[in-house]
Amino acid sequence: MKKGVALLLGATMLAGIAMPVHAQEAVNGAEANTGGDIVVTGSRIKRPDLAGVGPATVLSAEQIENSGVVNIENVLQRIPAVAGFSGNQTNAYWTGNGYGTAQVNLRGLGIKRTLVLLNGRRLVAGGTGANSSPDLNMIPVVALARTDVLKDGASAIYGADAVAGVVNLITRNDFEGLGVSGRYGITGKGDGRDFTGDIIWGARNDRGGIMAAATYQKTQAVGMTSRAACSLSEVTPGSLSCVNSANTPGGRAVLANGQQINFNQVLGGNGDFFEPYSAAKHNINAWQWLNAVSPIERISTSVFADYDITDNIEAFGEFLYTHRKSNQLATPGTLRNLAIAADHPTNPTGQSLTVVRRMLLEAGPRHFFQKTNTWQATGGLRGKLANDWSWEVSAAFGRNTAKDGSTNVANLQNVANTLDVTKCSNAPGAAIPCGDYLGYGDLTPAVLDYIHFTSVDRGGNELASFTADLTGQIVQLPAGPLSFAAGLAYREEKGWRNPDPLTVAGIANNNQQDPVSGKIETKEAYLELSAPLLADKPFFKALTLDAAVRYSDYKLFGSDWNYKLGLDWQLNNAFRLRGTYGTGFRVPNVPELFSGIVEGNLTTTDPCSNFSASGNATLIANCQASGVPAGYTQIGTTILTTSGGNRDLKPESSTTWTIGAVFQPSALVPGLSLTADWFDIKIKDAIRAIPGSTKLAVCYASANLSHPFCDDFSRSTLTGEVNFLSAQTINTGREQMRGLDLGLVYARTVGDVELSFDVNVTWLDKYEITPFLGAAPIVFDGHIGGGNGGYPEWRGYGALTAKKDNVIATWSTQWIGKATDFNAQPTHIGYRTPNVFYHNAQIAFEVNDKTRFQIGVDNLFDRKAPYIRSFTDGNTDTMTYDLLGRRFYVGLRTGF
After folding, report:
1. What value does the mean pLDDT take over residues 436-461?
2. pTM score, two decimals?
3. CA 173, CA 382: separation in Å to the nearest integer?
4. What is the DSSP letter of 430?
5. 858 contacts 887 by C-beta, under 8 angstroms
6. Which end of the chain is more exposed for a tag (fewer CB within 10 A), N or C?
7. pLDDT > 60? residue 317
8. Distance from C-alpha of 160 to C-alpha of 144, rounded to nearest angstrom
């Protein structure tokens, strides 16, 4: 640590020792505020309430139970401040090797910019290796007291990654006895069954206590064609039709003269038959081998304990363990660019040809699978000093390991051997059988067994951390005590991923990957002060200045200072103003730095598809200049895309403003609380991977193909289709976002019915990404699709709860506002989406203090997801909309 930091911390500690003060009695942060101070998310200093810290949403255990949701990521993704690209069960293909890892994306700024904590401490990343975000489902929901969502930058308080905000999971510490609960759900179509069972046990005495909880969850797969029959596109202007995969089971080939042909696609038909390729005739519906929801089986366990060693020293410990099995159904493997000479015995054309794509349908679909084990142990001591200062030291170690892979992966070297007549033989039992790839059904079982294998990859993540915190009051000022928090932290994060050796060698046809291994080491110190400036004055019931500074030293990137200032002005009992300004600093994480190049077929929209009918002069001219033939239609919906890390990445820095007001007119309208918070975030040297669809759209919108993105792809000179596209992580120029959060909470009793109404709305005024200095910005606000997720200008969520005697009824509504497709033209179908409302209802019966029965329905009116031209899956944006439709559930909780 720099000498300045040491002196700063030392002076603070010495001042407090010299001037002891009387601290207020504090309660644990997991408990409700009963009059004492609490530790709230966004500050290390104990405070009387949440209102002065910044814009925050607090989800209590009761609110989560009334929502009927059993996964914390589904609760969080209903919050209007959550947007963009994230991971959950219905978009498990898109989680960057997470494969079902539950994530959260505050503000839509990226999961890497949302810090997830458990009781104020970091969690190890989850996934299948070299990942950047914890799995939210590590903690059984039954063990949670509340979930705090701080919608404000907090790097000065918590360090890197808290650029967009913080999600802090707070566990219970008051449970005694034994509790069990279960929930069973099913969709309105009779599929998608899911079961969740919980058990919690706790015991306490006057010296401490222990609590253990476990959750078991198993969900059933939902086939994609049950929700979206096929991949839709506007082939003919004004109407949607199926555009199936151009990975044909007969084999699509290009002859030497440029003509495209397709070989026999009738099982048992003429193996030498071929004809001119026709997308309408030969393409195949690949969605029959995809899932809208992938199955997951998971068990999550946790143990929390605390014990008073003395009257002033308490020991505490936490242990988490999660085992998850998940899998995804995938299309049969596809071979690409097989060159077959004119005189090859399997070639009936008499010309040399290149098989552009040949689906290995004879082997059936591929099955991707993952098995992950994640655990984390935390131990520490906390206590009070003679001057009523509080201290805490803790150490944590977490480790995530995983094995994943895929069946029916083609060994390209073995494929080449089956085509080499000097190596292969048609004799029964030959070591290398000869293969005929021209025509569906011509591949024998012997060839399929020889060329296929099951790939197995291994990876993991580690987190080791140590923290030491000290908090208390330094001196009594005229308006109140000057409070402080100070501390030191050390953190080491590792990530690794070792793909199957054949994948690394580039001869496995499940997209080439390089091994990943890296480590990031951090040392930090911070100081936070809260100074009451005025109290009980006209127009100044209270005026408090908050300040924090943090010094971070990264082994790979050097050092950095970050700070935050906040002002809380309470005019009277009804009106309060608050504002913060802070800086942030995020270093590239392990996967962003060290991930090797990965190739994959990603859903991508080609703007040159049917370009002549677009009416856009710039687009038409650019597509023609690229050599795209007139009448060209994108073949299929995916493009081979490379992604991966970049060791030349630099850290990104950010600044965040928030200005807000709280209005609680208890004298006029008891129980009403109104909040409004304006946020403004700027990120410099932003670390981001621009999706391929966005790159293509921006390139073809530039004059004379002048945008640098035009260098990131190439087209086939034979067919005009994009045959290479790069979407690697880069430092973009800057990102800018601003908007407004509005909140309303109202509670009152009408007769003998207790009513509560809670509404949150977010207006996204601006979100633009400048890919490099001097470039025109890419506008994200009000747009959706293209692999970016959704950024509608308006989002909202509200819940109305009514309680009478032992009956509780809850109605909630999620609002997703209108948005424009990133990559569509105004004349295209799906150019603009409508307002979408999802309504949910639940009724619960509290039989007694420990037993509760509930029934409910989500998406009550079976709202269908709108069509998105540049969809991710299921003809829509699965990051934003619901594919499943109406869902029913029943649940029971009881205790002993």
Report:
1. 96
2. 0.86
3. 15
4. -
5. yes
6. C
7. yes
8. 25
